[in-house]
Amino acid sequence: MSNPPLFRDPWAKREAWRKHPVFSNRAMFSSMFPGFGIAVVAFTAYVVVDNFYGKVQGSSAKH
Predict the structure, then answer these.
(1) Strand ranges, E, within 1-63
(2) How far apart are CA 54 and CA 48, in angstroms?
(3) Is residue 27 part of a domain?
(4) How confident is the model at residue 44 (pLDDT cuts 50, 70, 90)?
């Protein structure tokens, strides 16, 4: 009982690609929406500038 039988997976080399970092959940999610981060930043900048411009135009139109 001191030496239990050693079992090796004959398919281990063929299954190794599943553990590669390219196929991780984070990599899959980040490549699912390419450009989403840039779009969020651009839209946020647009909304901020539009609100600022609207306030400037609104206050100057009242005078």
Answers:
(1) none
(2) 10
(3) no
(4) very high
